[in-house]
Amino acid sequence: MIIPATPSSSSYCPFQTSMASSSSSSSSKKGRLNWYDPFLFTISIIFAFILFWTIYCFLIPNPNPNAFPISTTTIPHTTTTTKTKSNSTSTQTITGPSFYDNPSISYTTTSKITNWDTHRKAWLLSNPTLSKPLFMLTGSQSSPCRNPVGDHLLLKFYKNKADYCRLHNIDLFYNTVLLHPLMATYWAKIPLIRAAMIAHPEAEWFWWVDSDAAITDMDFFLPLHNWVSLNAGVFLIRNCQWSLDFMDAWASMGPQTPNYESWGKTLKAEFSDKLFSDSDDQSALVYLLLHEKRKWGEKIYLENEFYFEGYWLEIVGKFNKIEDKYLEIEKRSPELRKRKAEKVAADTNAAVRERYLREMKMRFGRDGWRRPFITHFTGCQPCSGDHNKMYSGENCWEGMLKALHFADDQVLRNYGFKHEKVVGNESATAATVRPLPFGFPATG
Ligand SMILES: *[C@@H]1O[C@H](CO)[C@@H](O)[C@H](O)[C@H]1NC(C)=O
Ligand SMILES: *[C@@H]1O[C@H](CO)[C@@H](O)[C@H](O)[C@H]1NC(C)=O
What is the domain range of residue 396? Predict the structure, then answer.
């Protein structure tokens, strides 16, 4: 289920640790997990039914600016209005004093931010039209991959996320540098998220996705209503003071602090079956939630409604059958078969498909036949090639391509094409597509 990256890997791969979970029963999971990785077994007991953790903020900024009470702490501004070049009246940016003019607010993790919610609210009041619900963050190391096909794979994983973001109108930032020189590997995302929160006050949520995770249901949109979820490999976190404080606490166990070694010992003692002695983001997170439950726990909501993040080995063998089931739905639905502009399809098809999925009682998770939202290739290490010894390199390679083609077919559908499957050779599948006949799949 969960395979942490070995921290000894010297290259900068900040995006390799993950806690994948599925909504499968804990009893069947225990044996498997134990076999895969005893350290993660501990975590899995704690979170047996948890797909992801949800964190509320103290202040939930309302995306509707008219609903904001006018705060007396709002920075008074004499505004300079700059109309953007396009004539679209909805994009108007106002430049005036804001938290950006405050020298004590820093992008780096070494200084603390206070009153972030107030600063952000004031900024949103000045820039109401820029507000956006979601922002995706991902990235990979700054140097070429050691695995000869690593960069090729990372490009495909990147394309997968770019496709999803285009379809759902989400901004995407791909990072390839260390924002804190000591916070490498799986710690690198913390300074990135922090800087991104300041760079994108318009964004309500940040969605971290590891570079080796593929989105395998292009329809699915995260139900963002009232939560933030958190696990170390793929998570959502809300843009607010609470999140900044939480990340400060989390980062305090990281390699940039003098306490890093002692944290490693503490965590190793806490999770006796933890495989390595360095402090890592995942166990630090679990430790925080266990020992500072009162401080953080009440803002954390546990959720397991859907297959937020799936472990690839459980999933890749199912893609063909899942695809057949979704094609069956399209055969029954003239609405889904209809050719549409990509934007229109992205806006309308998911709801139609959902009606059929419910009617057919298709469930999420290991025992269900819904498309998994995210397939995470934990342990495959596409960039370094140092895959976990319990898999073969071929399995990882074929599995990754399978997931990426499964996702790409959902995208290509609106361009009138589909991958031509070459059974047993995903590399060949990558290269060949066929045009879809009018009325597909009812017409074969
Ligand atoms: C913008 O609108 C003005 C008047 O409404 C018009 O004269 C101008 O050509 C428009 N510019 C663009 C780039 O559409
Ligand atoms: C798989 O397909 C690729 C690309 O078409 C080809 O180069 C390779 O030889 C094939 N491998 C096998 C085992 O058939």
Answer: 311-435
